[in-house]
Amino acid sequence: MDVKTLLAESKARFSHNSAKAYLREKYDSKLTLAEQGGLWKADQQTITLLNSFEEDKIVIMDTFNNPVEVDRKELLRKLKAVYQQTMSDWLKEWNELEGKR
Q1: N or C: more exposed end of the chain, with fewer CB within 10 A?
Q2: Full domain range(s) for residue 23
């Protein structure tokens, strides 16, 4: 390989990795939801935590580490909807990015 080819490939890898990082930041911010007096992250950890309880009303820590009493089922429903929509949109853009590679 010559130097021009190596430079072109390294620039392409850098550009691809930058685009991946941009997508992560873009969609990570869309996973935040203000609901029931708290700020929540619609992520696997929070969804799993809510699924682990059976009670309708529970007290959990929001993203600012404040205790908030929530309607578990309603918060879970909303977080799952935000998570699924965001992940679907992210996957679509991810596949487009990978297709350009």
Answers
A1: N
A2: 3-100
